[in-house]
Amino acid sequence: MALNIADLFEHAVDAAPDKPALKVGERTVTFAELEADANRLAHHLQAQGVQPGQHVAVYAKNSVEHVVAVLAICKIRAVNINVNYRYVEAELDYLFDNADVVALVVERTYAPLVASCFPKHERLTSVVVMPDVMEPDDASDVSAFGGVLWDDALGVQSAERDFGPRSNDDLHIIYTGGTTGFPKGVMWRHEDFWRVLGGGIDFMTGALLEEHDQAAQAAQDGRMTTFPLSPLMHGGAQAGLLMHLFAGHLTILEPKFDPVRTWEIIEREKVQLIFMTGDAMARPLIEAYEAKAATGTPYHCPDLIAISSSAAIFSPPVKERWMAAFPNSFFTDSIGASETGFQGTGLQDAAHLSTDGPVVALGPHVVVLDDDNRPIDLASGAGRTGRLARGGHVPVGYYKDERKSAETFLVIDGERYSVPGDFARIEADGRVTMLGRGSNCVNTGGEKVFPEEVEMAIKRHPAVYDVLVVGLPDERYGQAVTAVVELREDVTLELEDLRTFLREHLSGYKLPRQLAVVPQIPRNATGKAQYPRAKELALESLTTGV
To answer: In this structure, are 495 and 371 located in the same domain?
Structure first.
């Protein structure tokens, strides 16, 4: 046995085979049923020649089949590659090439794109086609790339668990969302992934779990019903799912984010925990909740006790509305990155919400580095700003990118740290305020401005629905702080009005010098900001005056 994703899942299956593991729509599958299909797909992939260490991509929305595919890949010691289902052909070509994909598991709806890409990738020789979870009758042609339909692939294969031993060192790759450029494949050893993302460590105390600890929890009565709202092609949602599977919880998945349907599910299924990505989900959700309450027949969700956000800003104005609606629930902000896993979490208090960014207690092995890459003492470093770094269980590096790996994974005093470039400010109580990614930092007139801090303040303006802040070239200041704003319906906003509003929240040098109003803020399917595209939109808007 090993500290391996497949082994940890199989321990949960053995502990609680008949408990429900997943629910998607009206379909519920038990741990044993999930295991059986994962074994069948694993045997099919082996029959197609997929070897341990080779890369298999999963290109699908949230579904039972998506989870089956991830587990099957791990079972045969191949390497899972997550694919953004919103990619266009050029982006798919980049990923298939960069990740050296040899096999693909894809929803049938995406067959036309696969047909276009397939001839350009000699390594890619095997494709399994799952039914589309939202369009099960889709009959897109799969013959151009020799696609094998899901039922045909699984129907003739054994459901037995007859695989060889696995290793802690097997790799699991998470491709980043490409927030600041091309996505990069972050290589995790299975043990390290489990320790920092899969529940293999007590996030508060740093105590390490033993191999069968989560399976022992799975055997207990009263497991939670959890609802991660993000797509599984996002590393955070994938990690949350696996952690809940290892511990025997029931996980509800939806293929498409819909605020009204989300509340209907939370109410009907008595969901206890939801996981979302900041305002991109939190705002439409609370607006749908408030709209229903205004009709006199509010949603009844007394079981919702834990509300967690990560990977994007959960701003104070939106958070305050949530806390008013759910005064007895626990709200947590978690910070981390594809390159670090969990770095810290903070329990939010309605009376002490930060106006700058998430305020969290750092997790085990997480430090703040000064400009010389030396850890700053949290007890005496109040007010100082530095880069967050995580030691202990960290990734091997970026796939096929030694230069970027050397820049991100540093050895300090003999310990290896992951330092992706997130900045934080140390507070008086030893906690830290997350400021944002240094690569997005705006250098204006010799001052550093973190976009997330300005975005948090702008979101308080009643005319603003969503916003990103970027730096545009400026002859006088080097870069000009530029607000890229999506307004609420039937309102207008002038730059000077916005600047006047912000003066009580921000120093003068942080105020936007330019305002670009756009139809929609660019975000990926998980709600994460797409800053390069926001900069393009800002330049277009300011150039054309539209």
So the answer is: no
